[in-house]
Structures are given as C-alpha cells and as structure tokens.
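so i finally got all the pieces together for this one. its two components total, 675 residues if u count the protein bits. some of the lines might not be protein, just check the labels. i wanna see the whole assembly predicted at once instead of chain by chain like last time, that was a mess tbh
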Amino acid sequence: MEKRLIKKDALVGIAKKMAEELTVWAPVKKEDNVLFTPLTKDAEPFFAYLNSKNAPKQVFFPHTETLMKYTRTPKGMVFSAEENKAGKTVLFGVRPCDAHSFVLLDMLFDQEKYKDQYYITKRNNTTVITLACAEPPYATCFCTSVDGEPVSADGADIVLTDIGSEYLAEFITPKGEKLAKYFGETKADAVAETKKKEIAEKAKKAIKSKIPAHEVKPILDNNFEHPFWATIHGKCLACGTCTYMCPTCHCFDISDEAKASDGVRIRSWDSCMFPLFTKETSGHNPRISQKERWRQRVMHKFKYYVDNFNAIACVGCGRCVMSCPVNIDIRKIIEDISKL
Amino acid sequence: MENIDTKLREVAKRLLLEKKVDVIIGYEKGTLPMTATPCFVSTEAEADKLVFNDLCTQNLAKFVHDLITNHKNSQKRVKPEDRKKKIIGVVARGCTTRSLIIHLQERQYGRDEVYIIGVPCEGYVDRKNLAKSLQQAEILDGTIEGGQLKIKTAAGDKTVAFKDVIAPNCVVCRFNNPIISDIMIGSPAPAMNPDNEYSKINEFEKKSIEERWAYFTKEMEKCIRCNACRQACPSCYCPTCFVEQSQPQWVGIGEDKTDTQVFQCMRLYHMVGRCVDCGSCISVCPMGVDLRNYLKKIDKDCVELFGSRAGSSMEDMPPLGKYSEQDKEDFIFNP
C-alpha cells in the first residue's frame, strides 16, 4: 500500500487543487455550522472541524433527486433521464464514522437482488478521503460500540491521520491511488506507521460513551410488543432532525411533480418520525402513532438491518443525540432496552 | 434565579395525590450536560425529577394541546356518559401561559381541562448563543450560579455571563411572569426590558426590497424541511398541515428552494396574532434559520395596526378573530 507524509498546512491547498479539476465536497464553515459542500472559489475547506452538522450521505443519496422526466405528447408519454453532471467527485475529509456509513448504505443500495443505479453511479464516481479522528471530537461519540473506530479505513479510499507533525496519507484502494499525484512525493517511513498505530490505540481508548448495541439484538427479537415502547415518544416533536442528520437513515419517498404536460419523478428523503411515514392511500397507517414510529427507528437500526445485512445501521456519530430538540438520547434508549 | 425545584415537586406530588391532575408536563434534567428537557409526570415518585431553571427552553403548551387532542380522539368511540375527562397539569412560564390563552381563545379545550402551575422566568439560555460564545467547543459539564455560567468545555474551563447568552426573545419579554395560573410557585421575576423590542425590525424595514429578499433567500436556503419549527410551535396544531396535503398539493416535497420559501412564508403568516415569541421554533431549528426576524415583524404589525399582543389576556380576542370599527383598512385603498 502506498503511504506518504504531507505537511499539515498543505491539506487545504491539496483540496483546492483537486477542486480545480474535480467536484470536491469538503467541510465548509457556514455561519455557525460546518457543512459538507462542493468547493467553489468562495468556499474555503475547513479541516480543523469536529464533525459536520449534516452527514455526507447526501453526496450519494441527495435530499431530492430526479429519477426520470416525462412529457405527455399526442403520441403518448415520452420518458427521459437526467444526466449526471457531477462527474468525478472527491469527498474530502469525512470522519471515519461517516465513511463507515457508506459501507452500510452500500449493503442496501448495491446488493444482489436490488441495484440502485442512482446511488451506485455516484458512489463509483466518488473517491472517499477519510480524515481520521486522532482525538474523538465529542463526548457523545460512540463509534466503538457499533463496530467503528476513530482511526479506521472502513469505507475509505484514502485515510489521512494526524500524527502530530504531519498527516500520514494511506492509499487504501486503486481508486485512492489514482489521486496520489496530489499528495506530494514524501514517502512515509516505519516511524510514521508506528506513530499512527499508537494514535489509533489512544483514540480508541478515548471513546468513553458506550452502548450495548450488539447485546440488545436478542431482546429486540422477542419484544416487538412491550410496554417499553410507550415510554420513548412522549416528548418527541415528530420532526425529522434525527433522521435527516443521520448518516445511515435512508428511507425515501417517491413522488411526481407535474406542470402541464411535463413532469418529473423525484425521490426525496422520508423520515420514520413524520406522521405521513407509511401512510397509505386509504388513509390507513400501520404505524399509527409516534410510538410505532419510534419502535421502527430503533428496530430498523439495531434489529432489521442486522437480520438483513448482519450489520448495525448506526455509526455512533452522535448527531441525533446532539441535534434532538428535546434530548431523546438513543444511547439511553439502547441502554434501557438492554435492561428489559 | 431562585431555586424552586423543591417547591415545584411538592406541589406536583400534592396535585397528583389529590387527583387534581392526571399528568403534569414539566422539565427534567437532560442527558447532555447543561440541558433540560420536557417530561411527563403521572406518579408521585416521578415528581422528584421535575426541575425549572434557566436551561428550560421548550414551550410546553404544545404538549398540552397534543395530550388533550389525543385523549379526545381516544374518547370518540366511547359512549358520552362513559367518557372520561383528563386534566393536564403544566409547568408554565409567561410565554407558555400566552400560548395556553391562545388555545383557550381558539376553543381548543376548556379552562377546566388544564391546571396551570405558574413559574416565574428570567429568561433562558440560548444554546446557539452559548455555543457561539464558547467558539463551538463541546460542553462537558457546568453550573449556573449568581448570573454566571461556569462551564467545563473540551477546550478548557470558561465563565460566561447569563446576560450574554440569554435568548434574544427573553431579553425583550413583556410577560415573563404567568398571565393566568391556578397556582403560583416562587416570587414574581423582575421585569425584563422590552424597550428595544423592535429595534432590529426597524433596522430591517429600512433596507431595500432587494436586500430584504436577499436575506430571506439566504436564511431559507439553510432550511432542510425537517419541520422541527412547526412541530415545536404551540400555535401550529392543525390536524393536517397544508404541507402534507396532497389533493391539491400546495407545496412540493423536495428541496426546491421556492417550495421551502412557500412553506416558511405560509407558516409565518399563520402566526399573525398567534406568535408569543417563546423562541421554541428557533431553539429547535438544527440549521439556525432566522425565523424570528419575520415573526417579530408580524408581531409588530399586529401591535401597530390592531393594538393586539398575542395571548396577552383572556379578554382581548385575537386580531383575526374579532371585528372592530377602528380596524385599519387603508391597505384596501392603498396596497
């Protein structure tokens, strides 16, 4: 594997250089938030960030996406597709938890029986550069409980690790190696690698927040009906903050937006927290109240995904914990379930 | 701020014991440091978790409406003579009581269905303001004493004055003590300073149409349509919001910026004479959209044109719900 050392102040320059030729998404400071945004002349990348407010899943799975267009003509319907304008894309500086989320999303969108071309095209076109967490950014981080690590190559094509004086760049995949030209010529030595291993160990130990994510699976298997489910949702506002911030939430809705004889079929994010979620045309909704919707949220992440793909659909980034307006804490919910 | 937790818990226990209320909506300590979160107390033992302090942000009137509506829906198929009444107790500061007044004036429930535990308020900490003053460093622990927030952050210990991080709506609040209540806890809080209530709006009004539109566009572009503002608002209680209607569809479901603008515009205009400036929509917004600029403008117009402040008294009917010969009508001739 190719490994190089880059000067710490060179990172911004590298991202900007790439942005001249490719579409580069990077963390950008916008007022009080750090958001993943395509770099333009006015958008300066900000790598001294903790984690972005929004999850970078939107690069592959945008909030709104055109699936197809149609026009009603006297000779019948004419269908067309929207061309993908983004081309070669780089996702620069994602945290390892978010890179892990791509692996989880791949399991669903790029699987044996169903291949989502919209997602796969963007995913194949994109090189993921992970910026490892030499120090866990938040006290609410719990990646180690959900099969993640603060310094990890999971889901990454290139991993950058702050080893003190420099960044160690590891080119994990051939896709990553293709971008090696942007990273200078300084080869990494064994000292850098040892240093990285030490940092990785230290960072892992620094994750203090832990949840029994694996332990709750057998309990969830047997407790679809349980009085506990009535105790979570009382104060839930039924807003979509948790699911919209979540790197792994991927439920979507498909709708047609028509104007005269032209129409587009769009796919947009849905949220299990919304009252419209799974509401049927008849007016019936199998998940009739927030209680059932909350059960779905927990079950989907910690049971159904495990059943279907043998992986927990949570990466421990803590965004939902920090962003929930009424402080519904998934860590506490899982903790409480483990004690049932 | 005077610590009223002990008194609050005593009162809550007594009300539950005497069956004067079925459930009390209040605040408890959150799982994150320096937070408080809404909670529901229906047994005496649970009452020990109740708190009321400068970290309590949400307007609880929203939950009063939700609980009563849910209960009424559950009684629909019960024979009239077997129907049960449910009485909701609520810990209410000034703005919460204003929202309750709006609900009562709009005939959402009866005065006998809600038991108001009034609490004095000297304003709450604005989390976004606080985060800014801590340069976004994560809060690990902290206390509030004597107007000072002593905070342990990931970037070291910091002391912040409460007056510097108080929510902007609280600074200019006219009604920080409950307007109506069944019981009052603690002594009335000193008045806030509403003198400059509309100073920012006055400045904004002076800007050109282009500047104002540019600001509106910039703010609305932040919106991710999570609906947190609507969901947190006590005045947003329509059983089906126009956003979710599909026949006809008023707004698109996607991220089109005009759809977002239409959604926000429509919601804002539904707040005429109904926004109590409790700041809940602003505090819940994950993206920090400046909704208050517009809500405050609508409030100012209501005061200037109709002499009405939302939910400020049980007798003063809402401006859109009453007719007066003095109502301004010049807009008809001079739009």
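Chain A has a mean pLDDT of 95.
The interface with chain B takes residues 30-33, 50, 53-54, 62-64, 137-140, 234-235, 237-241, 244-245, 253, 255, 257, 266, 268, 271, 274-276, 321-323, 325-327, 329, 331-332 of chain A (CB under 8 Å).
anyway lmk what u think
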